[in-house]
Amino acid sequence: MRRVLRIAAVVALALAAGWWLFLDTPSRGANRPGVLRFGFWGDYQEFEMWQRIVAAFEAEHPGVEVRMEFVPGGEYPRKLSAWIASGTTPDVMLLQDEPFPRYMRDSGAGAEHPVLVDLADTISGDRYGDALAVAAGDYWPTAWESFGREEADGWHQYGLPVFGGNNLVFYNRECFRRAGVPLPEQTRVDEGWTVDEFVDLARRLTIRQAVDGRERIVQWGFSRPYSWLYWLPFIYACDAEILDPDRTAFVFTGPEALAALELWSDLDKLHRVVPASGDLGPMNESVAFLTGRVAMFTSGPWAMPFLNDAGVDYGVMYPPVSPSGRRGTRVTWDCVAVSGRLRDDPGKRRLATELAHFIASPEAARIIADVQRSIPANRAGTEAFVRGSEPRRARRFVEGLEFSRVQPITLRWDDMDWALRDGLSPLTRGAEGTDARAALNRMAELMLQRRILPVRLPDGTLLQPEQRP
Amino acid sequence: MSGLVADRPRRPWRRYVTGYLFAAPWIVGVLGLLAGPLVLSLVLSFCSWEGAGGLGAMQWVGTENYRRALWEYHEPQARYVVEREGQVRLRPRENPAAPAVLAPAGAEILWGGDTGPDGAYAVRATGFPDATFLVAPADLDRAAKRVSYSPPEHGDAFAWKAMRNSAVYAVFSVPLGLAAALGLALLLNRQLPGIGLFRTVFYLPHVVAGVATVMMWSWVFNPQLGLLNTGLERLGVDTQTSPVFQWLYSPQGAKPALILMSLWGVGGAMLIFLAALQNVPEHLYEAAHVDGAGRWRRFWHITAPQISPAIFFNLVMGIIGALQVFTQAFLLYSPQQDNALLMMVVNIYHEAFTFNRFGYASALAWLLFLVILALTLLVIGTSRWWVYYESDR
To answer: What is the 3-class SS of B138-176, one letter each residue?
Structure first.
């Protein structure tokens, strides 16, 4: 009997230890008063930035402890899905704009288990007074609009914008010197330049040399982006659009869209100014750029810390202007939001809201600006952002916000992204029998077949997914 | 003392309780971490659920997820551009007797697979956004050019593609892996000086982390700078013209690259073969040698039957492993591959964690389970004809 009791005690201890270690983890962080869980992603520079922001918040709020739940960048969306599915989202979390419409849909009126808490009444000061009141005007308009929506009972704000960035054209000065091309800051080549002028510059920057008796390109003029998202500045430069203004139909179907895809294809097949599949191997664009294998590529301010650390001599240009005289590029923002789990926990919700407001405040914006990885969404951080390394370069991103547009985001963002990548893929690898028209058709067909979005043809004909004509 | 003092009657349940208590942590683990999610995923496979709103937000959809994956019918789609003005007659679908409209040159005719009573295609045409027409296929053949066509499809094209990719990968990688592992085991079964070092070296890749292996191989397969193409070029192979030699950057080369890469990890199977080879009784070889049997006959009539349980085990594990390949395919994805490395598990992962279709992903996971189960049962069923056990004699 004694032996049985001993074994039972050991097993019970093991089970209790297991319970303590695994099953109670989310609630332990969530239930203790004065402790907030904060979920975020990023690289090591961002991690240090968040440490500074959290330390500043804790200094202002004695007795409050913020548990930082860091997830490496690429894994964050998956982790977030798991958090949401298991009902264990952190009290405060950093979120991207792409999936945000889905979170808003799942948090709106009538949602039994909302993903996010509506922050509108805290912004107006209705709930917590002026202490937690912010004004939409403090933020860049595209940032503010990305995280709220108009519902039957008025405007709802589910996230407070924190930082973001727009895509511009980076150029490596060393590559310009090597090719004997005057530097853009001297010629101001990007002031109102056209796509043709851009292609001409890329051609002049491409250097061919004989290596082992075979002509090889040792410096490419431009690196065609990995994703269609980074191609958006050129899609806009062809006067094409991905979605209609109310984002309910796919309109990348007309002659302008065809021109944008032909440009994509021609840069490789016709002009030979971009590396083709495998030419750079596993080297990513930033590395190819810093090593001088490509002279220009499109990216956002998030590429700057890496290039600055590597000591690259580079500048930033605006994308080309379209035939109709319009210049556009993509801007993407991230926000901070409060977990819907706290809807019925006023004390913890207030604390979480305070943290969210602090992260979106001018004080945090200045810390964000120091890293110079992204533009602070709060305009109070703009000057600090521009004061960083080579102010002219950073200022271009801020000034570029004037013509930057929120990405073509829909409820079915991931499916749309997948379909566009899939449609573009044969064109990227130069598959036999594939041209820009076929790629365009493929994209439209995927939108319909996968029931992602209706497709609007140039003459206004609207094709519904899986609906027979 | 036995026989003089009766043993205290033992209660039989005590033995069971002790056993169960010992097994309790394992039982709790299996129920909580394996059986629970297993049952939940089975239920989920009949539901639609995007993750938000807790489990209460799951909506029962019956076999819809399975239908969507396997047999949902998609009509063919075609797009024509009218080349000869006035020769494509568009009859209003609502009133076919009404005067036909003549499609202008350049108009696009869109057919979604639907046909009218007389075999005419039910179409839409650019320039007439609100109308549906009937058009004779002969008119289109004569005066319009077909610029795109999607054949009719059953099921989810991506799910089928993933199944085909996994099948091709398994068909090539499993036999190749078995042959390579057996070949290495035969070589390493010799008593040579330093053979232990060789065994360690060949086994080592099996214990190297998958991600590190993938990163290394992605450089080996680099079309411009990689070891493989450099070596092939030295041998006179023109690696720059054929898409196969673009390896991970072309649909033609991606799967062969992955299959070649899978050989890197044959150390595990090799070790099992080696253990089996060392258990083959030496006297059988001696007897065969005395009878004049050559190397091949000794292998075929002694080695192969003796190690057939190891072949059987490695075959089953190989099939399961090949159909569940994930890390390599996931990490080596490149947009130039045209989804050549979209394997079943990769597709399940994307459906669940990229598109948040947890119900549909669960259905795909159960389909994968059924495929693996069927193949495993098939191998087990055939094993009586080719697997030799000493105890069966």
So the answer is: HHHHHHEEEEEEECCEECCHHHHHHHHHHHHHHHHHHHH
